[in-house]
Amino acid sequence: MAGKLNLDKLDYQIIQHMMEDAEISYADLGKKLFVSGGTIHVRIKKLQEMGIVKGTRLAVDTHKLGYTVIAFIGIYLEKSSLYDSVAKDLMKIPEVVRLNYTTGNYSMFVEIACKDINQLRFVLHDQMQKIKGIERTETLISLEESLNRNIQVATTEG
């Protein structure tokens, strides 16, 4: 990202409050921050246009929905130049919930959510291993997620 973001203390406060509770109304947030709901609306629009706010998501406990197997897959590529095509193919697999291009041992690091070990096997064996450009994978199964949070954004300039 080129250049410095033109954000002030209010922008950071809005971001922080909305990350904690995206359901809060603009009017209620305005009251908390001592500005009008209209000001909040204008600032959110600005943050969306800047690409900082990318929408809102519903936080769901996937484990309660039956997705009890979470795994992290380290992917070794045949050549790093294949990243874009492999990433495009991985994005077609619904169980892939996170994908990162990484340094270190792996070229890519993927998080997948599955209902059971059989689904994990299917994703690994029948889907991922058939993607052209993947040399091999290493799978780590999560036993427990102890922390999942947003960052604490700075509320002051600088």
Structure in words:
By secondary structure, the chain is α+β, with helices and mostly antiparallel strands. It has two domains: 9-49, Orthogonal Bundle (Arc Repressor Mutant, subunit A); 69-141, Alpha-Beta Plaits. Helices cover 33% and strands 19% of the residues. The protein contains five helices and four strands. The protein has a four-stranded antiparallel sheet with strand order 2-3-1-4. The longest helix is centred in the N-terminal third of the chain and has 13 residues, at 37-49. The chain is elongated, with a radius of gyration of 20 Å. GO terms for molecular function: sequence-specific DNA binding. It holds the Pfam family AsnC_trans_reg. This is Winged helix-turn-helix transcriptional regulator. Residues 7-68 form the HTH asnC-type domain.
Provide key terms for this protein.
158 residues, alpha+beta, Arc Repressor Mutant, subunit A, Alpha-Beta Plaits, 2 domains, four-stranded antiparallel sheet, 5 helices, elongated, Tscrpt_reg_AsnC/Lrp_C, WH_DNA-bd_sf, Dimeric_a/b-barrel, transcription, DNA-binding
The biggest beta sheet, please? 4 strands, antiparallel
CATH-defined fold name of the largest domain: Alpha-Beta Plaits
Number of domains: 2
Counted by DSSP, the helix tally is 5
Total strand segments: 4
- Given the C-alpha coordinates, what overall shape results? elongated
CATH class of the largest domain: Alpha Beta
**CATH evolutionary superfamily of the largest domain:** Lrp/AsnC effector binding domain/regulation of amino acid metabolism (RAM) domain
Instruction: Give the strand content.
Output: 15-25%
GO cellular component, one term: cytosol
GO molecular function, one term: sequence-specific DNA binding
Protein name: Winged helix-turn-helix transcriptional regulator
Keywords: DNA-binding, Transcription, Transcription regulation
